[in-house]
Each structure stands twice: as structure tokens, then as C-alpha cells.
Amino acid sequence: MGSFEVRAEGGNLVDVFNRDSAPAVSVGAGDVVTVESLDCAGHLERQRVPGEERPRAFPGRRGHCLTGPIAVRGAKPGMVLAVHFEEITPAEWGWTAAAGKDTWLTRRLRVAEAERAWLLWELDGETGTDQHGHRVPLAPFLGVVGMPPAEPGEHSTIPPRSEGGGNIDCRELVAGSTLYLPVTVPDAMLLLGDGHARQGDGEVGGTAIECGMTTRVRLDLVVDRPAPGIHAETPGGLVTFGFDADLNEATATALSAMVDWLQIEQALDRPSALALASTTVDMRITQVANETWGAHAVLPTGVLR
Length: 305
Fold this sequence. Notes:
Protein name: Acetamidase/formamidase family protein
Helix content: 10-25%
Strand content: 35-45%
Order of helices and strands: EEEEEEHEEEEEEEEEEEHHEE
Number of strands: 19
InterPro entries: FmdA_AmdA (IPR004304)
Number of helices: 3
Low-confidence stretches: none
Distance between the termini: 35 Å
Mean pLDDT: 96
Radius of gyration: 19 Å
């Protein structure tokens, strides 16, 4: 098993998905990679006051500032990339912004025309404290973990995708989790970034505590999994995902995958698996902020005995 490091600098930073991007590093299945990432905006220097403009890696950025790609030798469509999150460490500061942006949700919440609000957070590894004195426990994870679409050319980092992943924004994916992503392109070409020191389900204001991150992952390739699509094993439980412009469809996709999982793991027929899900599975809105609805189903750890 090899060990590699990818720094957040120079050609290791991108702001779009592109299957033809040159890899920052090439690794084998089972290798460990420590990845440094900037915050989603690519700040090269910390904000000194909330909302302050500071130098960025991409002054005219088109999407999230991400690190990679990481080429995984031997990966090909039909396989599943297992991303084991061994350690996730946030930087010493972060920010959250809301309102002041015209979307259907900000209009509904009556904040589309309001001045943009900013929180500036001091992060000590365990706790975040903003300029108003609010203190929250940290639960860091990466918002974007994914591979480019199979189609050539540049693709936005903003919407999550049902294959390959991307901007999933699921707060369950903390250290100790394994995320399973269907491989979309040869060598996977994995990108990581969009560190969140803490986020609520939904990411309702459009941002979390956005921060730089140092993440250690172990990458494996598998073929047979008990659930289709993107799914995860986390400290909090088993998780299945759905992504769609229609929240009903996103919810149904996530739930259907969880029922599949229960059928196999519990040796049940499908109606019985759904009945069991109705007593044990939590349905959650992953995020509302990224042009595509995200929903996830959670089978909590220890609920089945």
C-alpha cells in the first residue's frame, strides 16, 4: 500500500470537472492519499472581517475550487470506487454566507433582495465560534467528492450527479465513513474539496461553514455492492442517495436503493423490505442549494438488532 500527498497549489487546483484534465497524482487501489483543499471559493488568504474580498486561486471561478484529479489505476466504468475517509481536519477559519442572491428559495424566504449576510468563524478543531459569539461543535466533511461525467469537455461542479458523485453535501460523510461511487471514466479522475466544518441537513442558506481541509482517504475498487448508485457506510448508519430536479424523484431514488439494500442484507422480499424501512429508515433532504435536489435515506447504526 502506497502513501501520497496532494497539495492545494498550482496545477493541482481546478474549478470544473473534465475527464481530460491531467492528474495531480496516480495511485493504485488500496493506496492512501492525503489531500489539501482550499475552501470552495479558493481563498489564498483568510478573511479578516466577515465578507472581505481576499485573493483567490480562481478570480473568475466557474465553480468550487477542488484538488486533483487523483487517477486510480485500473478503475473503469462498471466498477465502484470506495472512498474511505480516514481523517478530516478543518483549517483554522471558515465562513458562511446567505441571502442577497436571487433564487426561488431566497424569494420564498423574502431575502433575495436583502444585503448578503456573512458569518466569519474561528475553528479550533472541536468548536466553531462566529463574530457574534455563537459556538457550535464541528463535524467536518467534504461537500464535493466526485468524478467527471463520461462526456468530454468541462462540466459544472455545482450539481450533484447520480453517477460519479460531485457536490453531494451530505453531513453524514464524516471521518470513518466510506462513500461508494460508480466509476464514470477510466482511472476515475477523482476530485475532492468544498470543505465544510459543519452543516445542517439541507444546507438551507446555500453555504455551510466553508473552510479549507486536509483529508486522508484510502481508495479501493470494488465490483459487487448490495445497493445501486451512490451510497455510503457511515458512523451514523447506512446511507443511500437520490439526486433530481424533482424532490419526489430524488426521494424515491434514495428510498428504492435502501429497500434494495435491506432486501439483500436481511433476505426479504421487496414488500417486506419496504415495511421494515418504514419502521427504521429516516428520509432526509441532503441539500436544497445546488440546482438539483438531494435526498438521502439513513438506516441508523444499531437500529436493527
